[in-house]
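In the current project phase, work has continued on tokenised descriptions of protein folds. One protein thus recorded appears below exactly as we store it.

——
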Amino acid sequence: MSKKRLKSAVDNMEVFDAENYLILSVNPRIYSLDVVYYAAYVLLDRAYVILGGDPKKKILVELRPKDNTDLKSLGREFNNELLNYAVYLKQSAKNQKLKEAILQRVLMTNLAPVEGCEPNELLGDPGGITKPWGREHGRKKKKG
């Protein structure tokens, strides 16, 4: 640690009030480096961000506010963003198969018709839901 005086330590934060910056220690077994990048990116408009440490042992994040933001609040916001993006990435991974199935379904409904085969047969749609409205109900000719 540097020779600068440590005014207070809260959770994973070391706050240096006199120099107006803080250092957060992030456990990479809990939060991946990608999650740290996302959380840091959210704060770029309000703070200068410097990343350091060993991404396999401990990630260090230095935050220097661009205005008169309270240091502890800034650090807590960073911690909230870590959790926010960790949950987002976890949910995204869980929903990956569902997203792929929906995309596949969307792309298959745009297939050109196969001769001798209705689109609903290709998609396993026995109820005929994908059958175009015009084919089912016919187009009425205008009189006159």
Summary: The mean pLDDT is 81. The chain is about 40% helix and 20% strand. Residues 96-131 form one domain.
